[in-house]
Specification:
By secondary structure, the chain is an alpha/beta fold. It has a 5-stranded mixed beta sheet with strand order 1-2-3-5-4. Strand 2, helix 1 and strand 3 form a beta-alpha-beta unit.
Length: 163
């Protein structure tokens, strides 16, 4: 399924691939909203693939690309476009829906808020943000918090006992 939204003279094309059926998945319109909000200041036409998978596919990809065992909530695959090639593809996000559901429950977070956070987080990875060291993590987390606040979503890094 492909969605497009006109925003500030730029288009964000989102292709959604779903390998499982669940009533707990966000609507394509919600995913588009989260993408558009995250890319609001990017000022460039973009394409992103969002692939929603089960734990088995997530585990396989996590092992193949990160050499880690087990599923992960999101994998980000940025595209490095060769010079001279006109392509707006930022990359692919692979999201493990069952793991997101478990995490939201364990962390006592609304499921759709957790989905929004994970998509924002993944897009920031596609844009080059990272959290390998503390300084990078702080910059990325602050960016996530700011974007999520425009969506009326609470800071995902505050623990229940800190509220």
């Amino acid at each position: 399924m492909k969605l497009m939204k006109k925003q500030n003279l730029t288009m964000n094309l989102v292709e959604i691939q779903t390998t499982l059926s669940s009533n707990a998945l966000p609507s394509p319109e919600k995913i588009q909203q989260w993408v558009d909000t995250t890319l609001a200041d990017f000022n460039q036409d973009t394409e992103i693939v969002v692939r929603i998978v089960d734990e088995q596919e997530s585990s396989m990809l996590n092992k193949q690309y990160r050499h880690k065992i087990g599923p992960t909530n999101i994998l980000s695959f940025p595209i490095e476009v060769p010079e001279g090639i006109d392509l707006n593809l930022l990359g692919d996000l692979v999201i493990c829906a069952p793991l997101l559901e478990k995490e939201a429950l364990e962390q006592n977070k609304p499921l759709m808020s957790h989905w929004a956070h994970i998509i924002v987080h993944g897009i920031l990875h596609l844009l080059g943000y990272d959290h390998i060291d503390d300084d990078e993590a702080e910059i990325m987390e602050n960016k996530e918090i700011k974007i999520l606040s425009t969506l009326n979503i609470e800071n995902p890094y505050i623990e229940d006992n800190e509220k």
